[in-house]
Write a structure and sequence with these properties.
The protein contains two helices and five strands; from the N terminus they run βββαβαβ. It is α+β, with helices and mostly antiparallel strands and about 80 residues long. The strands form two sheets. A three-stranded antiparallel sheet has the order 1-2-3, with no helix packed on it. Strands 4-5 form a two-stranded parallel sheet.
């Protein structure tokens, strides 16, 4: 995955694909849209949130990934519960 600017100051993510068929090679860079979780974490950063506490699980895997890719800007602390 690469990052490139769209000229408006915002970085766009792009995925590079290479395909071959009968000796013909095609290369393309496809822009990737922000997901809802990317927007959520970017909003938290805009609000100057620096730490998030939570329990990871199937329902929030997207949020955890968005936090992981920005771990230099926002910290995730996994909490535990005892029953």
């Amino acid at each position: 995955m690469r990052r490139r600017s769209n000229g408006g100051g915002k970085e766009l993510r792009a995925q590079h694909f290479v395909a071959s068929y009968e000796g013909l090679q095609i290369s393309s860079e496809v822009p990737m849209a922000d997901t809802g979780t990317d927007i959520l974490v970017e909003t938290l950063l805009a609000w100057e949130v620096d730490t998030v506490f939570g329990l990871p699980g199937d329902g929030i895997n997207g949020v955890i990934e968005a936090l992981r890719t920005r771990q230099d800007k926002i910290k995730f602390i996994q909490v535990r519960h005892d029953i």
